[in-house]
Amino acid sequence: MDIRAVAGRLESYAADAVIVNLFENVTEPGSATAVMDQALNGSIRDLITDGDFTGKAGQVSVLYPRGAVPARRVILAGLGAPEKLTVDAVRRAAASAILKARELKAAHVASVLHGTGAGGLAIEESARAITEGSLMALYDYRGQKSSEKPEAFPKQLDLLILDDKDTRAAEGIQQGMAVAAGVAVARDLANLPPNICTPDYMAQVATELAQTAGLKVEVLERRQIEALKMGALLGVAQGSDTPPRFIILEHNAGRDDLDTVVLVGKGVTFDTGGYSIKTAEGMVSMKGDMSGGAAVIGALGVVAGLKLPLRVVGLIPAADNMISGHAYRPQDVLTASNGVTIEVISTDAEGRLLLADALVYASRYQPSAVVDIATLTGACVVALGEGVAAGLFSTDDRLRDTLLAAADFTAERLWPMPLFPEYEKAIESQTADLKNTGGRTGGVGTSATFLKHFVDYPAWAHIDMAGMMTTMGDVPYVPKGATGYGVRLLAEFLQRWAGREKA
Ligand code: BES
Ligand code: MN
Ligand code: ZN
To answer: Does the model's pTM come out above 0.70?
Structure first.
């Protein structure tokens, strides 16, 4: 769907559908909705007085003007309570409305800039939120379905502005398109089956993205990974006939004058658990175990699109976790690239192993911050719930607060978790420097504490997104399947980090 800003008035605009909104529990519609209501001889007020439409978030109604206005349909979307208006309410309202337009096979749709009247949102902000919400909602993964792809609706969305010389809406649309494209890249990767989305496939997608977005890309193959002595990543990868890749994406490469942030994403393209094998039930969602890596690839795409004044490096250690005659075993001892030795207790705690080598690699960029994101532990899902929040660990308060503020803005919830010193004891090994698991309790804290041993820079944060990998589709702009969680969060965080005042 194409989106543009067009000067025009909704009540005189010819389209298959025009979208207006209503705040919750208002008796008199305001601004653009009021004008539309008058043009429709009060039929919006009828919906309100009869109690058929309350303006609750997620609510949508369709009105048929029968010639009272040029548009064939009017879609009314609930914005929720006016005092609680956030950009996310706009994303959701836009998403619900555009999904209704798709259902009605409306090709040409126009919309008001939700929340810019009484809601107090800036034009650019609203245009960006509508663009993000609409495009993310229309994302439709068809996979390998052999049936013909249905015709895509709508084809055109016009956001109505007053003055065609005002470029603010167009700028918001541009930003929203960059963001939604990054989310789609991540969702595609995580939705693809593991026999297609291999480490090499991820590297190819990263390479194509780099070419179109203007990023630097480097893909390390097994021999180069060996030369770097990444024994932890190689240990995980050695059981699979599908070779590993270490993917490096870079925005503003070589700009030593800029602050550098490194993002690290877990890229386990399938997690069987290895010899500590998962149950059939536990294994069935594990094509999504590269969602952190996918989020980093998607975020780098957004960062390039937004031209952030920051040097950003994305590192994705990618491997399959499989069993075979050459797979790693429990009680093997691996040596990571910083020389730290690790006794493998569970081959299913593979994510922290390949992240360890990537976190060591991050150090060479002398970053002002490193953020890793991973579907790391079932324990995090037990602690915070499925689809509720990702766990956030940080060694730096400012980094944690910036991430929390970004998460609040993008509505990709994060919840702070502790790095208590007691967790160290749980990962002490008799025969090596560390064990890769810490026993039955405190599993999310011990996993983060393990990672901390590979960090030698002052500001590091770890995001455990295991519970946020997939959805059943309860948020209107996050369709069933892979969520693309983390793309917007990381991009928003980077934008805030770039704009921060240096300490
Ligand atoms: N990829 C899994 C974690 C996971 C579980 C992600 C469910 C998404 C949904 C990870 O590699 C894993 O297997 N973790 C183990 C760690 C344990 C062996 C210490 C777990 O959580 O059970
Ligand atoms: Mn595992
Ligand atoms: Zn895993």
So the answer is: yes
- Same domain for 391 and 451? yes
Catalytic residue among 352, 413, 435, 488: 352
Distance from residue 278's CA to the centre of ligand 2 (Å): 8
Write down the catalytic residue from 56, 278, 400, 452.
Answer: 278
pLDDT of residue 500: 82
* Residues having C-beta closer than 5 Å to ion ligand 3: 268, 271, 289, 351
Say whether 287 is catalytic: no
Pocket of ligand 1 (CB under 6 A): 271, 285, 289, 346, 348-351, 375-379, 381, 437, 443, 466, 469
- Domain of 337, in residue numbers: 178-497
For residue 501, the model assigns a pLDDT of: 72
Number of Cβ within 10 Å of residue 502's Cβ equals: 5
DSSP at 6:
E
| Distance between Cα 390 and ligand 2 center (Å) | 17
Task: Note if 216 is an active site residue.
Answer: no
Are 397 and 460 spatial neighbours (Cβ–Cβ below 8 Å)?
no
Residues 238 and 121 grouped into a single domain: no
Helix (H) or strand (E) segment spanning residue 482: strand 481-482
pLDDT in tens, 391-416: 999 999 999 999 999 999 999 999 99
Distance 271 CA to ligand 2 centre (A): 6
Say which ligand is closest to the CA of 344: 1
**What pLDDT score does 460 carry?**
99
Residues 389 and 487 in one domain: yes
Are 465 and 373 a contacting pair, CB within 8 Å? yes
Q: Which residues contact 232 (CB under 8 A, 6 or more apart)?
A: 334, 335, 336, 337, 342, 353, 354, 356, 357
**Per-residue confidence (pLDDT) for residue 30, from 0 to 100:** 86
**How much of the chain exceeds pLDDT 90, in percent?**
97
Q: What local confidence, expressed as pLDDT, does residue 164 receive?
A: 92
